[in-house]
Automatic annotation (TrEMBL):
Cellular compartments annotated: Cytoplasm
Record-given protein name: Tubulin-specific chaperone C
Species annotation: Betta splendens
Region (Disordered): 1-52
Subunit structure: Supercomplex made of cofactors A to E. Cofactors A and D function by capturing and stabilizing tubulin in a quasi-native conformation. Cofactor E binds to the cofactor D-tubulin complex; interaction with cofactor C then causes the release of tubulin polypeptides that are committed to the native state.
Pfam families recorded: TBCC, TBCC_N
Lineage: Eukaryota, Metazoa, Chordata, Craniata, Vertebrata
Biased composition (Polar residues): 1-11
Keywords noted in UniProt: Acetylation, Chaperone, Cytoplasm, Phosphoprotein
GO cellular component: cytosol
Function: Tubulin-folding protein; involved in the final step of the tubulin folding pathway.
Domain of life: Eukaryota
InterPro entries given in the database record: C-CAP_CF_C-like, CAP/MinC_C, CARP_motif, TBCC, TBCC_N, TBCC_N_sf, Tubulin-bd_cofactor_C_dom
Repeat among keywords: no
The keyword Hydrolase is assigned to this record: no
């Protein structure tokens, strides 16, 4: 009897133990299902938020773009004063639209980003065309001039021909239209082996164009509105904070340094960029691009950062979108981070 009781007691113990283990397994399985369901829900919610942000961006961006286009279409036939005011408004709103795009790149898909950038480029081209049609540059007219006047009006060496004033008394980079100055781009063009400098007074809040430069050292001390670099070979170009975008095209064997809101780089090879950028940099058709944090300094740098409106504490220098490399999870072979030991630390002689 005692043996039977012991067996029953032992069987009961084993039954209880087995039941406890089964209960524990069921609890773990239930917990795993709950956690999996929560992860799925979070992923779905995150995707929904991203889609909602994308939809809001597309709607707001296209609405503002169409509004600016309507403003431009109202320029032909209007009085000159009204046209100038509308163009000024369109320019300011286009700049705000660029900023809206820059602030939205973190949640936009590659396709959405490219579509918006193409639309913005078309809008900027339309704005430039409208300005040219409504406020054309002063046409050249033959008149009797003295040799002294001809010498005074001659373009300064290295300045882009189209950017030189049509009147000897005006600064390079502006033209006279019915007695009123209309701001134009300024910069350097077709130079070789030169040391070139622009001061803050010359470039502040203006569009700067550097084109067809070889083996030149360029210092831009100030805060331009935009910076365009085209056909640059073997140069060192340093620039103060650019309030909007830097566009680089056909650059090779060069060193560049600048802070900006957005960087677009095309057809560039074997070039180092020391960068401060508040959005994500974009490269296309590039190879051998090296990136490092912006490290150039000059006495008025902090003041120019304030003028530019750039966030000093927000630098996405190593965040790059390569439009020729869309393989998720695999680093692009077209750009790399410059190792710290190889970074340039001394800029001026």
């Amino acid at each position: 009897m005692e043996a039977t009781a012991e067996v029953q007691q032992e069987n009961g113990f084993h039954d209880e133990t087995g039941s406890a283990k089964m209960h524990e397994r069921l609890q773990k399985r239930h917990q795993a299902r709950v956690e999996d369901a929560e992860r799925r829900k979070e992923a779905k919610d995150s995707q929904s938020v991203a889609e909602e942000k994308g939809e809001y961006f597309s709607s707001a961006f296209n609405r503002e773009r169409l509004s600016i286009e309507e403003l431009l279409s109202s320029c032909p036939g209007a009085e000159r004063a009204a046209v100038a005011q509308r163009l000024e408004e369109a320019t300011a709103r286009t700049g705000q639209l660029q900023k809206f795009l820059n602030d939205s790149v973190l949640f936009l898909t590659q396709y959405e980003l490219r579509q918006a950038q193409q639309a913005l480029q078309k809008l900027q081209a339309s704005l430039a065309e409208a300005r040219e049609e409504a406020l054309p540059k002063k046409k050249f007219a033959f008149r009797t001039r003295t040799k002294a006047a001809d010498k005074a009006a001659a373009p300064a060496p290295g300045l882009v021909p189209d950017l030189v004033s049509s009147d000897a008394g005006e600064h390079a980079g502006s033209v006279q239209v019915d007695g009123a100055a209309v701001s134009e781009q300024c910069g350097f063009s077709n130079m070789h082996g030169q040391v070139l400098t622009k001061t803050s007074d010359e470039i502040q809040k203006r569009d700067v164009l550097l084109t067809h430069l070889t083996h030149c050292k360029v210092r831009l001390l100030g805060s331009p509105s935009t910076l365009h670099l085209k056909h640059i070979d073997g140069c060192e170009i340093l620039c103060g904070p650019v309030s909007s975008s830097v566009f680089v095209d056909h650059c090779r064997d060069s060193t560049l340094a600048f802070p900006c809101q957005q960087l677009r780089t095309h057809n560039t090879t074997d070039t180092q960029v020391y960068l401060h950028v508040t959005s994500r940099a974009i490269i296309e058709d590039c190879h051998g691009v090296g990136l490092a944090p912006f490290s150039w300094s000059y006495p008025q740098l902090e003041e120019d950062f304030t003028v530019s409106g750039l966030d000093r504490d927000r630098n996405n220098w190593s965040q790059v979108d390569d439009f020729n490399w869309l393989a998720a999870g695999t680093a692009s072979p077209n750009w790399s981070v410059i190792p710290e030991v190889d970074r340039k630390t001394s800029w001026d002689p």
